[in-house]
Write a structure and sequence with these properties.
Elements lengths: L2 E3 L10 E3 L3 H13 L3 H7 L5 H8 L3 H32 L5 H14 L5 E3 L5 E3 L5 H18 L7 H7 L2
Helix pairs in contact: 1-2, 1-4, 2-3, 4-5
Length: 166
């Protein structure tokens, strides 16, 4: 079996990861891209005894590594783009329920690491769970000041009552 150099942090020990055969590559492709179970993936890849082969392949370290790497590529590429577009569409859809829009916005903020983080004047970055009670109280006070600065009073004024009276 041909060998390739090990990427740092990948796969089996000793720095060498066996390259996949064409059938093994097809097996990995079927599991990740087609979303079928391992037995069906082995069948589609052309193995004569798919049930037994799928059992063996899913316990072979370099096959498991290849499946993980292929999933990571898919998540980082196509699915990340689809997810971003979906979240954007939900946030901008005025007909979507408010809870869905807020949830989509929260997800975007979490992914971009804007939510649950703060930066003080010194530029240090702390997550909320890392802050002391005093730091949290200061942050809440700061947010309340910011909120009051941008808040707009929407209660009806006296003009609305004057118009309503005959």
């Amino acid at each position: 079996m041909p060998l390739k150099k090990k990427m740092q942090g990948d796969g089996p020990r000793y720095g060498i990861v066996p390259q996949l055969t064409d059938r093994q590559q097809q097996f990995v492709h079927e599991i990740v891209k087609s979303g079928v179970n391992p037995t069906e993936a082995a069948r589609r890849a052309g193995y004569r005894a798919p049930k037994e082969t799928s059992y063996t392949l899913t316990r072979t370290p370099h096959i498991v590594l290849a499946i993980r790497q292929e999933r990571a590529r898919m998540f980082d590429g196509d699915l990340a783009n689809v997810a971003a577009v979906t979240l954007r569409d939900i946030m901008l859809d005025s007909q979507a329920p408010a809870a869905a829009r807020v949830s989509a916005a929260r997800t975007v903020l979490e992914v971009t690491r804007e939510l649950g983080r703060r930066q003080d004047d010194a530029g240090s970055d702390k997550q909320l769970h890392e802050m002391t009670p005093e730091e949290l109280a200061g942050l809440i006070s700061k947010w309340e000041v910011e909120r009051s600065r941008v808040a707009v009073d929407i209660t009806p004024g006296d003009d609305a009552q004057d118009d309503a009276e005959p």
